[in-house]
Amino acid sequence: MTQRNLTGVKLRPGFPARLDARTTSVTPARPALSPGQVPACRHTENVAHGVGLDSSAVRQSMVAKLAQQGMADATVLQAMGSIERHRFVDTALVNQAYEDTSLPIGLGQTISKPGVVCRMLELLRQGSNGRLGRVLEIGTGCGYQAALLSLLCQEVYSIERLRGLHEKARDNLRYLRLANVHLLFGDGMPGYAKGAPYAGIIAAAGGEAVPQAWIDQLAVGGRLVAPVSAGSSSAAKQVLLVIDKTPQGVRQSVMEGVFFVPLKSGIA
Ligand code: SAH
């Protein structure tokens, strides 16, 4: 059963915590994990062959490579060392789960490469003093980044426009029992006003520009990290954009080039 709130976003009640359609106040079923704390694994039947029991060593080697590339935020690196990326990709791809590569997750979408995820989370955290409050993620995909965000933020609102992926993320995240992750099925283009203002907004899909609604829903002192097209032609490359909302106004910084799936309107 789904509920529809006033903005037309369909909410799936019951996982991971009941999200009341009329209010944003949610009582977590259990306290949020502290950064880097590894959630208890309830069952093991999803552990993929080929990575299996030694996945921790493979993951630590991925983290070591990220550190060598210049990633320096120990809290983000610790989170990336805790969340098992191989659980978020198809069985046929588990052997590539800890390589620095994007991988297909179905419906023409991809899980971003660990280096880019790490970089964006670092940028997001640099905008705050320590642990982030409420964060909005546009593009849940398979739920991997949402799991990482759950270790770095107080509350995570993650919205996905493709029902198949919204459901996949729900299945992927179930075993982690993350009480502070709220999965929403809907178009993230207008943001998600019910959870605003956000200390952070992070987009995993790139559009022509950052929708004004996202900036409006950012708290003063908050930071937005999103890929956007670098030019107007359809072949235009994307860059990472960082937007800080300060008491003096909005400040925008253009970072390095990136490659993300397109931000699209509507649900499917
Ligand atoms: N963070 C994800 C990456 C998923 S790829 C992960 O860890 O797997 C980006 C996702 O953004 C895709 O699933 C795509 O369907 C979704 N997306 C694109 N436009 C969107 C929109 N307007 N609202 C919500 N999700 C959107």
Provide a descriptive summary of the structure in words.
The protein has helices spanning 55-68, 74-82, 114-126, 144-152, 163-174, 212-216; strands at residues 3-4, 10-11, 103-106, 109-111, 132-138, 153-160, 181-185, 198-203, 218-229, 238-246, 249-258. The chain is globular, with a radius of gyration of 17 Å. Helix 1 runs antiparallel to helix 2 (74-82). The model is unreliable at 1-36 and 38-49 (pLDDT under 50). The protein is of the alpha/beta class and 268 residues long. A 9-stranded mixed beta sheet has the order 1-2-7-6-5-8-9-10-11. The chain has a two-stranded antiparallel sheet with strand order 3-4. It has a single domain (24-40, 52-258), classed as Vaccinia Virus protein VP39 (Rossmann fold, 3-Layer(aba) Sandwich). S-adenosyl-L-homocysteine binds next to strand 4, helix 4 and strand 6.
What is the name of the CATH superfamily? Vaccinia Virus protein VP39
**Low-confidence runs:** 1-36, 38-49
Strand content: 25-35%
Question: Could you say what the CATH topology is called?
Answer: Rossmann fold
Number of helices: 6
* Mean pLDDT metric: 85
What is the CATH C-level name?
Alpha Beta
| Number of E strands | 11
